Fold Cytochrome b5 heme-binding domain-containing protein.
Amino acid sequence: MLDWFQQLDHHRFYPFFLRSIDYLQHHKLWVLVHLAVLSVLTFWALTTGRSSAQSPRKMSSGPPQVDLRPPKDDPITIEELSRFDGSDPSKPIYVAIKGIVFDVSAKREVYGPGGSYHVFAGKDGSKGLGKSSLKPEDATSDYSSLDENESKVLADWVSFFKKRYNIVGKVVNKTVNL
């Protein structure tokens, strides 16, 4: 077991080794205090010493910062809403949920033609959002058939949209939910 030790250059290493052992034996309290301080500093550096750019918790907390204008309650008919489906790049893209019309133009790649949620563009897609369905037949304003869990999903979508997109109006002549 001591073969590795015997192979070392004893003339250089052994005196240093003995001095180190001797120092540790005579200064136990000093060594323990310094180890404790070093441990605390290391812990602090690993937990709080990060910049905000390096901290994944700070980067992912909360929704992205969006400057939202005060909500509007301009009346928008279903026919008018259908003109804002993203097919005309010069017009904004609108999505309505529970009769609230949101301007989702900032995410044209998502709601515009070819986007994953284009099925909701220019429509009140409340039922489809509540059901988590991308089927065109589910992208309707009548969400009265949603069960309790689906209604909660729909409420979560409304909350999500209110934090990220400007409200530009209210759908008029939509299916009334009793």
